[in-house]
Amino acid sequence: MPQDDFDFDAVSDYLQQDDTLVWVDMFDPDHEALQALATELGLNIWAVEDAVAPSERVKANLYGSHTFFTVYAVDIAPAGATTPPGSLLTKHRISAFVLPRGLVTVRLPPHFDMDRVVQRWDDLDGQQHGVGALVHGLLDVVVDGHFEAVQALDDRIEDLEDLLFDTSSRLPNIQRRTFEFRKDLVNLRRVILPMREVINAIQHHRVEAHHSSELDPLYIDLYDHVLRASEWTESLRDMVTTVFETNLSLQDARLNTVMKKLTGWAAIIAVPTAITGFYGQNVPYPGFEMFSGFVISSVLIAVLSMLLYVMFKRRDWL
Questions:
Q1: Which of 106, 2, 21 is nearest to 11 (CA)?
Q2: Per mean pLDDT, which range of 95-109, 214-228, 280-294 is the poorest?
Q3: CATH number, domain with residue 183
Q4: Cell membrane: present as a keyword of the record (predicted)?
Q5: How far from 145 is each of 7, 55, 119, 141, 254, CA to CA, in Å?
Q6: For residue 69, which of 6, 21, 124, 138 has the smallest C-alpha distance?
Q7: How much is the pTM?
Q8: pLDDT at position 211, please?
Q9: First to last CA, the chain
Q10: Domain finish residue from 208, 230, 252
Q11: Is the pLDDT of residue 282 over 80?
Q12: Within this chain, do residues 208 and 89 fall inside the same structural domain, yes or no?
């Protein structure tokens, strides 16, 4: 039966009872308290250090009496939310020691809501299946968070693709957002890809006292979700690279268009410049010092400029 007011110092005694499932959840624990619990439960000392060490990677280690793993749950800022420049992802680090009749989870800031794990465990009727169902619920919530983050990034990258061909969009803003998405995908890839080894290790080396074969299909399905999230992340990385390269190509194309139009207008302006240059010389020409000369030069400027404009416009140079 569930019991929240148990004696923390008697955890090892509870673990000896056949009908008991113990879950110790520690958020930003004091190192001495964690060390004392590890000593009482016989946890590997190096695994205990890894549980609170900074910047620990995603992994799973198998020991004689327990399994240790570290994973990262992720949250992504909702669409339209005002966020400072930088990453849109928030990572929650969770380490766990899986015992035959118990689970010890160590969470580091920022806060991660464990209520979802409890709800997932209840949905599986976890009390019947033991610690295996609890571990599955935890990993399932983490992997679902990965999927939600990848889906959100996919939607935002597609929106960014639409902006590429929007002439009113600001290209520097597109470049900045592209780099932010690439950074988020790199961070997401680091926490998703190693999950395959973590799920595989836990699935094939389950240490619970009462091994429930009913959980095997659930772990297989969970592994499939991890593979899909990994493949999706790889495809998004290629998509962001394509957006970045396409943006550069479009900038070059726009620059060529601008240069082409400037060159066309420069050719048109050169006509009146040449004509007025001739009439500005101190040499008698037809119409020199006469009103008719002004009329002739003006007509030549207008006719030749219009002729060049029509020719360039037909060739799409303006």
A1: 21
A2: 280-294
A3: 3.30.460.20
A4: yes
A5: 33, 20, 15, 6, 40
A6: 138
A7: 0.76
A8: 59
A9: 81
A10: 252
A11: no
A12: yes
d(Cα 152, Cα 195) in Å, to the nearest integer? Answer: 20
Of 54, 55, 69, nearest to 202 by C-alpha is 69
For the stretch 36-39, contacts whose Cβ atoms lie closer than 8 Å and that sit 24 or more positions apart, written own/partner, are 37/8, 37/11, 37/104
What is the phi/psi pair of residue 57, to 5°? Answer: -85, 165
Asked if the structure places residue 205 within a domain, the reply is yes
Query: How many percent of the chain have pLDDT more than 90?
Result: 27
Mark whether 304 and 161 lie in a shared domain.
Answer: no
User: Which position has the higher pLDDT, 176 or 51?
Assistant: 51
Residue 208 belongs to what domain range? 8-252
Q: Domain total for the chain?
A: 2
Neighbour tally for 216: CB within 10 Å = 13
Average pLDDT of the residues of the chain: 83
- CB proximity list for 221: less than 8 A, separation 6 or greater: none
The token pair at 10 is: 């008697």
Closest CA relative to residue 241, chosen from 157, 172, 165: 157
Same domain, 176 and 274: no
Strands 22-27 and 67-76: unpaired
Cα dihedral: 8, 10, 13, 14 (round 10): -30
Is the same domain home to 261 and 248? no
Q: Give a yes or no: residue 68 inside a domain.
A: yes
Burial of residue 107, with CB atoms counted within 10 A of its CB: 0-12 exposed, 13-18 middle, 19 or more buried: buried
Greater pLDDT, 76 or 171: 76
Q: Let me know if residue 97 belongs to a domain.
A: yes
β-sheet bridge partners, residue 98: 67, 103
Distances in Å between the Cα of 273 and the Cα atoms of 33, 268, 294, 306 are 88, 9, 14, 15
Sheet holding 22-27, edge to edge: 22-27, 102-107, 89-99, 67-76, 59-62
Amino acid at 217: P
